[in-house]
Amino acid sequence: MLQTHPAGYDTYSLPAFAAWGRWIRVVPCSQAGDKGISSLSQQLGPHESLKGEKDARQNGHEETDPGEDGNDQEVIVIQDTGFTVKICAPGIEPFSLQVSPQEMVQEIHQVLMDREDTCHRTCFSLQLDGNVLDNFAELKTIEGLQEGSLLKVPFPLPYTVREARIHVRHIRDLLKSLDPSDAFNGVDCNSLSFLSVFTEGDLGDSGKRKKKGTEMEQIDCTPPEHILPGSKERPLCALQPQNRDWKPLQCLKVLTMSGWNPPPGNRKMHGDLMYLYVITVEDRHVSITASTRGFYLNQSTAYSFNPKPANPSFLSHSLVELLNQISPTFKKNFSALQKKRVQRHPFERIATPFQVYSWTAPQAEHAMDCVRAEDAYTSRLGYEEHIPGQTRDWNEELQTTRELPRKNLPERLLRERAIFKVHSDFTAAATRGAMAVIDGNVMAINPSEETKMQMFIWNNIFFSLGFDVRDHYKDFGGDVAAYVAPTNDLNGVRTYNAVDVEGLYTLGTVVVDYRGYRVTAQSIIPGILEREQEQSVIYGSIDFGKTVVSHPKYLELLEKTSRPLKIQKHKVLNDKNEEVELCSSVECKGIIGNDGRHYILDLLRTFPPDLNFLPVEGEEMPEECKKMGFPKQHRHKLCCLRQELVDAFVEHRYLLFMKLAALQLMQQKANKQESSGALENGASPENGTADSEKSESEDGKIDDNVTGLDQVKELAETIASDDGTVDPKSREVIRNACKAVGSISDTSFDIRFNPDIFSPGVRFPESSKEEVQDQKQLLKDAAAFLLSCQIPGLKIGISELITRSAKHIFKTYLQGVELSGLSAAISHFLNCFLSSFPNPIAHLPADELVSKKKNKKRKNRNLGNADNTAWASMTPQELWKNICSEAKNYFDFSLECENADQAAEVYNLQKITLLREISLKTGVQILLKEYNFDNRHKPTFTEEDILNIFPVVKHVNPKASDAFHFFQSGQAKVQQGFLKEGCELINEALNLFNNVYGAMHVEICACLRLLARLNYIMGDYSEALSNQQKAVLMSERVLGIEHPNTIQEYMHLALYCFANSQLSTALNLLYRARYLMLLVFGEDHPEMALLDNNIGLVLHGVMEYDLSLRFLENALAISSKYHGSKSLKVALSHHLVARVYESKAEFRSALQHEKEGYTIYKNQLGEHHEKTKESSEYLKYLTQQAVALQRTMNEIYKNGSNANIMPLKFTAPSMASVLEQLNIINGILFIPLRNCHFCIKTASEGAGSSEGTPEHL
Prior knowledge:
By secondary structure, the protein is α+β, with helices and mostly antiparallel strands. Helices cover 44% and strands 8% of the residues. The strands form six sheets. It has a five-stranded mixed β-sheet with strand order 2-1-5-3-4, with no helix packed on it.
C-alpha cells in the first residue's frame, strides 16, 4: 500500500472524501484539520450530502446499465446498504450517523473533528463493546458492527509529540476556517468562492424559507452603474467583494511555538512534549506546555524558562478547553466562529485537487502563524518529516497504482482513484520543488556546470530547465525548441497514459513556468542515475535518428498503442545503414528500469509535424496551403498537429471513405440491374449464385430504407471478419475507397501517421519508398485540412494574440531580473505594456544593506544571460514594437498599433482585460484596487501593486473512464428524449466521479450542471436550484471566479432562482454574470446578447420596464451585429422588446418591433410556420390595443373630464409567461415525443457536448 502525506500537508486531506479511504492507507485523519469534510455528511451543518444526488447513498452504486455495449462483465453491483450507528462522546448528547460498509473508521474520526461540538478534540479512539477500532479498518470488516451499534469515545488517549503537533495544527485550522488568506496566497489547495455574497447565504432549505410564494416583494432592482449597457467603467474591486465572514471575530492575538522548544531531557521525562506561547485578546501573555496528559499553563516567560505548572494550571486535554478557561473573549468568539464555519456550504470548505491561483488579492496584514512557519522550513524545502521513510518514492507510487487490477468496475474505481490521488500529490510536490529550484533553494546535482545547464533532485523528483544545454536541439531551433519540447512531451505522456497499455510505463511529468523559466519535473526511473544514457536506451535514438536501436518487447507494447494513437509501424536506417523497425518517433526512448519495468520517455514527437510551419526543400505543398502563403518558416521545427486535429482529420477521411464506397456500390447496383443474370469476373456458377443471393439481400436492405452508408459499414465489417462471403467486386469497392483516402490497409479503413516523416536526420530504407511517399502526401493533406476546414471555424482573438506575444517577451525579460528586483521589474513591464504614461521610469532596488564595493563582487547566480539591470531601460515604444514584431514573426499577424491606447482604440480592446490575460498567463498577482490606465501624468502601477508571482502549471489530468462512459450514455439518453433514464445514468456518473475524484472536480461540475438542467425540465425546481448551486460553487473553486464556464453557471442558477420565485437573487446573479462578462470580454461579445435578454426579461417580470428596455435593446443590437439583422435570434429579440413596449402601453413602438420580427419569421420560415402565425396573432392583438388606446385618447380630447372612458387593461406580465420566454432564449424547448417524457434541445449549453463547454464562452 502507498504512503501519503499527512493530511495537513496533503494536496487535500484524504478523509475529506469517503471515496479516498478505501484503498490508500494514510497516517491518521486527525491531522486533516478543517481542510477535509467527510462524506459521512449528516454532520456538515445544514447540508446533507457532499454528493449531488438526493436519493443516492454516499458510496454505494446501484446496478445500472453502463451503456449500450451489453458487456455482461460490466454489470457489477457495488451495493453496500448503508446503516446507522450511534456515537457517544463525552460532554455531548449521543447522535446517529449513517455510514457505508466501505467507509473507514478514520472517516468517523473526521466527522467528529468537523462537528461543532466535538471539533476541538483530535486525540481519541472509537470503541465497540470495549474493543478499540483500528483507524484504517473498513467498517464491513468489523465484527459485530451493525444497524444501531453504539460506538463510544472513551476517556481521551495520551498525546505523543506527533499527536500534539497535529492537535495544534487542527486548532489553527479551526481558527483560520473563515480566513481567505490561504486562497489568496494559493496554498494548500484553497481557492475563492463569492456565490454566497450574492445569494446572501445558502439557497437550500434556508433559501426556500427566505422567499416563498410569488408575491411581488419590494426589491431593489437597480443594477450597479458600471454594469449598465454602454458604461465604460470597469471597476476591479467588484471582482472580489469583501465577505462579511472574512473579518472573523478575533479569538487570539498570537498562537505560536515557544522559543523554549524542544523540551530538555529532564522535562521529557516529566512528559513535556512541546511548548506554546499565546497572547490572548485581553493581552494576557501565557506559556503553555503540551504534555502526554494534555495542555496546561507553565511558569515560563519570554526570557526565563520555568516549566513547572502555574497555579492554577488549568490542565485540559484540549487546547480549546484550556483557552476557554483563561480568555472569556476566546470562549465567546471561538464558539461563534465554529457556528459560522459549519453553516458554510461544504463546497466552500473542501480543498480542490489542484491549486487554483488568483490574479488579484486585497492588501492583507501578515499575521503570525506557527504552522505556516513550520511548513516553510520543513516539509516545503527538502523533507517530509511526518512520513515514515521521509521522502516518497514517487515513481514507485505512480507505477504501482497503474499496475492495480482493472478487470471489473470495483477494481477500476479503486485503481483510478489511486492514480488520481497520487498524481495530484505529485503535481503539488513537483510545483513546490520547481519554485524552490528557481528561487535558488535547491542545490544542483552538477553544481560546477553553467547555471542554465544545472539539474536538480528534490523529494525524489528530477528537475531540468528549458534550455538547449548541449546543442541537443541545435537542428530544431536551439533554446526555442528546448522551451517547446517539454509541453510536447507532456502531451505525449497524456496520450500514452490515456491509451493505458498494460506493461508500458511513462514518467510522472509536470511542466512549470515560473519567473520566466520553464522547469520540467519528472519521476525518476530506478537506476537511471547510476548509468550512462547510451547504456540505458534499448529502443529509439538519443541523437535524433543518427543511431537507432529497437527491441522486440517495446515493439510488442507500442504496437498496442499504434491504432488508437494512429501511429504507423515503420523502418528507419541507423548510422550503419541497417534497417531498424519502430512503432513511434525515433526520439521516443525505451529504458528498462532496475525495477524491470519498460519505460518510454521523450514523447515530444508523438503527433505528426505541421507542414505549414516546416518548409522542406523540394517538397510541393497542396494548392490550399500555397494560396495562403504556406509553408512558413518558424523559429523551431517542433510544430506538430494537435491530437484533436488528427482525430478530426481521420473522422473527415472516414466520412469520405464511406461516401466513396457507397457511391461505387450504388453504381454497381445500377449496372447489375442493367445486365442481371450475367456471371461476373469468370466466377463459377456456385459463386455466382452465392454472389447474386448476397446482392439480392443487399438490394433488399437498400429497399428497406437502409442507406448506402449503412451498407458500406456492414460490408467493411464483413470483409474485416474475413469470412470469405464477400464477392470480389465488393472487395474492389473497399480497396478503391481505402486507397483514395490514404488508408494503410486495403481491406478496411485504417489511417495512421509515420511521426518520423520530414524529421531532420531520419533516413528511410529504399524498400519503404512508396510507403514514405504515401505518408508524405497524407501529412500534406492534413496540413491542407487544417487550413481549409478547421481554421475557418475559429475566430482570431486579438487580445489573445497581443497577450501571448507580450508573454513571450516577458519570459525573456524576467530572466534577467534578480529576486530583489522582481516587483519593480514587473510593475515597470506592466506600465510599458498598459499605461498611457509616456515615459515610465523603473526604480532599481536600492540595496542599502550591501556596500557598493561588495555589491560589485557578488556572484551573479542568474539563470539567463541578460544583464541584471537591462530590464530597467525598457520603454513603452520599444515593448510595443517588440510585441508587433513578435505577433508578425510567431503568428504572422500584422498589428496596427504602436502603444496600448492605439491597440484599445483600433481593436476595441479593454486594458483591464489585457491586464487579466497577461497576469493569468505569467502567474502575476496584483493588488485589488482601481487602476487608472489613462493617466498621462503618472504611471499606472507601482512596486507595491505587485503582490506575488505564482507558477503556471501544466500536468496530465487522469480520467475516470467508467464515470465518463456513464455520463456520455446519460447525455445520449437525454438527447433521445428519455429524461428519466438519462437522469439515472447521470446520477450514477456523479456517484462514480465522486468515487474517483473526491467531491471537487471540473467533470463533477459538468455532471451537476446537466443534472440541474434535467431536474428543471422535469419540474423539480428546488432540486435544480440545489444542484446548480453546487455547480456554481465548484466552478468558482476549481476553474476560477471569473472563468467563462463560471459565468455560464451563474446564468443557469439565475434561471432556477427565478423559477423558485427568488427574484432579487436571480437579478443579483445576472448582474454578477454581466459584470464578469464585461471584465473578461467587454460588452462587444455575442454571448452578451443572451445575458442581456435574461436580465431584460427578469426586469420585465418585476415591472422595471425602462431598465428592461435598456438591456433588451442592447441584446437586439449585439444579435444583429453577430448573427445578421435577418436571423431568427434577432426576430426573437424584436418580440421581447415589443412585449415590454406593450406593457408600457407604447403600442406604436411595440408594433414596429413585432413587424420586424414577423417579417424575419415570414422570410426565414414561411407564412405557415407556427412562429410566423404566433407573431401574426400578436400583431393583431397589438393593433387592437393601439386602436382602443387611440379611441380613448380621442374621447378625452373631445369631451375632457366628462369623457366616458372604457378601462384599458395594462397588466404586468405573469411570472409564467416570463419564465416561458426565459426558457426559449436559454434554449430549453419542451417537445412531447412518443414513448418518452420530453425531448430537450439545449442550444445555449449544448447537452451533447461531453465537456459541456459553452459555444462562445
